[in-house]
Specification:
114 residues; 0% strand; mainly alpha
């Protein structure tokens, strides 16, 4: 089994498959839209239609790639922001738990001494 097909700890295989399927659907949709766009231009020759269709698909895929890169970058930014907030929250919770434990221990020790 290749390394790409081995499931990783963070679901890398699922992400790779999902990304492949998403891109394949994007390519299929771009090709379909290009065909529909060119069909209305029946005065063009076959080679002209093919060239326009090719350019339309290339432009659509370029735009889709930029959109996906922008979305991926935003996801990374959000992940970093949430991890930072989670670490702060975790520090506060651990601090509160330690404070409660210390206060409880001090209260029990004080009651035992009386």
């Amino acid at each position: 089994m290749s390394d790409l097909l081995r499931p990783g700890p963070d679901g890398e295989l699922g992400n790779a498959v999902e990304g492949y399927l998403l891109w394949h659907a994007t390519v299929t949709e771009a090709e379909q839209r290009a065909r529909e766009f060119v069909e209305a231009m029946d005065w063009l020759t076959t080679s002209q239609q093919a060239e326009i269709e090719r350019c339309y698909v290339a432009d659509s895929l370029k735009r889709a790639r930029k959109d996906l890169e922008r979305i991926a970058a935003r996801c990374l930014d959000l992940r970093a922001e949430y991890e930072h907030r989670y670490q702060g929250l975790r520090r506060r919770c651990v601090g509160l738990a330690l404070t409660v434990c210390a206060a409880s221990t001090a209260a029990v020790a004080l009651l035992l001494l009386l």
